[in-house]
Amino acid sequence: MSEPRPESQPAQQQQVPGTLGEMDPKPDHGEESYRGSGRLTGKAAVITGGDSGIGRAVAIAFAREGADVLISYLNEHEDAKDTAKYVEEAGRKCVLVAGDLADRAHQKTIIPRAVEEFGRVDVLVNNAAFQMSHPSVEEISDEEWDHTVAVNLTAMFTLTKDAIPHMQPGASIINSSSVNSDNPSPNLIAYAMTKAGIANFTASLAQMLAEKGIRANSVAPGPVWTPLIPATMPEEKVESFGQQVPMGRAAQPAELAPVYVLLASDEASYVSGARVAVTGGKPIL
């Protein structure tokens, strides 16, 4: 049997933050394929960056598993409304909260809104992220550095701190790290630094929260085909994106969602402090 041919995407570029409508090919978030089995029945979840990419796939999967969902997103209103449609078609409630997670004041509104809508938080998925590719440190402005830290690290800290008082034993916090936390790309230096920080924050958090019965884990994705890629990488890198891993292709967001479902579910009652690699065969340390 011949080896599968590595897949690629046409060279393409978008403005930050990127939208699904302009992507070629369109990512698969499990819209037609994900089948739930009641693993999150009755839970209330908050997902940042839930309009597209991994967050959208997780929102669809969580809803089909029985969870109500609050989706935090920047300004991709059409993508967010489309995600909400899939959540509501699964018979679950979907709350959309638009705004810039780099803004500390906005960060502080998200958990209170979830508590207002659901009465509690059972699952928190800190998934929103910003990255930008640069060939040198000198090209990274102070403003971009601060923005990357604010979105990727500070928002995670703020939402986690705000959520814990509204979590009961059995609740779960899931943070999106990256293969870059261990194998940092030289062109994604700011992003890679934050992803290493997420991994370490989560490992510390799991130990801190164990006595409360709250679990904390992180997921380390490899290359995933989302709007962030054509919006933040040069066209030639988009075309070869994903070919560097042993499987020779980027993941579809739908291939990440089952890991988040497991970590959110009661089936993972003894899984805390873990970092789960979803990398197409590229090991993490």
UniProtKB/TrEMBL annotation:
Which residues fall in a coiled-coil region? none
Q: What is this protein called?
A: NAD(P)-dependent dehydrogenase, short-chain alcohol dehydrogenase family
Q: Name one GO molecular function term.
A: oxidoreductase activity, acting on CH-OH group of donors
- Give the span(s) annotated as Disordered: 1-39
Q: PANTHER family, alphabetically?
A: NADPH-DEPENDENT ALDEHYDE REDUCTASE 1, CHLOROPLASTIC (PTHR48107:SF16), NADPH-DEPENDENT ALDEHYDE REDUCTASE-LIKE PROTEIN, CHLOROPLASTIC-RELATED (PTHR48107)
Q: What family does the entry list?
A: Belongs to the short-chain dehydrogenases/reductases (SDR) family.
UniProt keyword list: Oxidoreductase
Please tell me the species this chain comes from.
Geodermatophilus poikilotrophus
Matching entries from InterPro entries are given as:
NAD(P)-bd_dom_sf (IPR036291), Sc_DH/Rdtase_CS (IPR020904), SDR_fam (IPR002347)
* Composition bias type Basic and acidic residues, residue spans: 23-34
